[in-house]
Amino acid sequence: MPAVVPASVGGERSFEEETGMSKQQAAKRTADHCAQLAQEHGWIWDAPTGPAANAPSTLILAHGAGAPMDSDFMNDIATRLAALGVGVLRFEFPYMAQRRVDGRRRPPNPQPKLLECWHGVHAAVRAGVSGRVAIGGKSMGGRMASVIADDVEADGLFCLGYPFYAAAKPEKPRVAHLAELRTPTLIVQGERDALGNREAVEGYKLSKAIDVHWVPTANHDLKPLKSSGLTVEACMQEIAGLMARRLIG
To answer: Residue 248 needs a FRET pair 20 to 30 A away by CA distance; which of 30, 53, 135, 224 works?
Structure first.
C-alpha cells in the first residue's frame, strides 16, 4: 500500500508535499529547463536572483508588434523581475525571428499563427518547470497571451500596454474576450496610451479577474511625461514590484 502523505494544517498541502521536492530543488529544475530551452531555440532566459530566487515562479514574456524580445523595454522589465525573484523567459514570434535572420522588417503573422506559437512555447515551458507559470507581454504579445490564458490555465496574465484598439480606431475595441476572462490578470496601462487611454478603457466591461494599474500621464510604452515629476525608472520598478508580488507574494 502506498504511503499516505499527510495534509498540512488547514487541509492544504505544502509545496514540498505536492511536488515531492524542496523549493530549492524545484527552482533549480525550473532554471535548468528554461536555460536549456533558451539555448535550443535562441530565446532569452533571465534566471531569478535575490531573496525570492528559490520560490519557483516563471513568467513567459512576449514582445510587441514592432520590437524584438531584446528591446530596451523587454530587457528592462525582465531584468527588474529577475532581481525580484521571478524567472523570465522571452521568445519571438515567427515573423520577428525571421527578421533576426535576414534583417527585413515584416508585419506580424496572422493571429492563428501567433496563437499557435504561444501554445507551443507555453507547452514546452510547462512540461519541465515546477511552481507557477504566468504568461504575458508587451502590447500585441500581451493581447495574444490574453486569448490563450484560460485555455492553458495560466497561473497569471500580465499585459503591459494592452492595445485595446488599433491606432486611431477606438470605435473597434478588442475587448470581447476580456469580459469573460477567468485568469487572474494585471493590465498595466498608461493614462494617455494612444491604444487605450483611461477614459476609453474605463468605459469597457472587463472581467472581475482583471485589475488595471494606471501609470499617470504615461504613453503606450509606459513612459510618463516629465511634467508629472515621475521617472521612467521609478515607474518600471513599481510595475515590476506589482508583478512580482502577484507571482511570489
So the answer is: 224
Distances from the Cα of 29 to the Cαs of 32, 49, 58, 153, 172, in angstroms?
A: 5, 15, 12, 21, 44
Q: pLDDT confidence of 8, banded at 50, 70, 90?
A: very low
Q: Quick: pLDDT tens for 157-216.
A: 999 999 999 988 999 999 999 999 999 999 999 999 999 999 999 999 999 999 999 999
CB-based burial label for 165 (10 Å; 0-12, 13-18, 19+): middle
CA distance 47 to 202: 36
Number of other CB atoms surrounding residue 59 within 10 Å: 30
Asked if 115 and 144 touch (Cβ cutoff 8 Å), the reply is yes
How would you class 178 by CB atoms within 10 Å of its CB: exposed for 0-12, middle for 13-18, buried for 19 or more? buried
Angle at 80 between CA 77 and CA 85, to 5 degrees: 120
Contact criterion met (CB below 8 Å) for 38 and 89:
yes
Average pLDDT rounded to a whole number, residues 141-150: 98
Please check whether residue 144 is in contact with residue 114, taking contact to mean a CB–CB distance below 8 angstroms.
Answer: yes
Structure-block grid coordinates of residue 236: 518600471
Q: Using 50, 70 and 90 to split pLDDT, how confident is the model at 16?
A: low
Query: DSSP labels for 169-210?
Result: -TTS---GGGGS--S-EEEEEETT-TTS-HHHHTTS---TTE
Q: Can you give the pTM of this predicted structure?
A: 0.91
Amino acid, single-letter form, for residue 3 = A
> Is 4 a residue whose pLDDT tops 80?
no
Which residues lie across from 159 on neighbouring strands?
137, 187
* Element (DSSP H or E) covering residue 62: strand 57-62
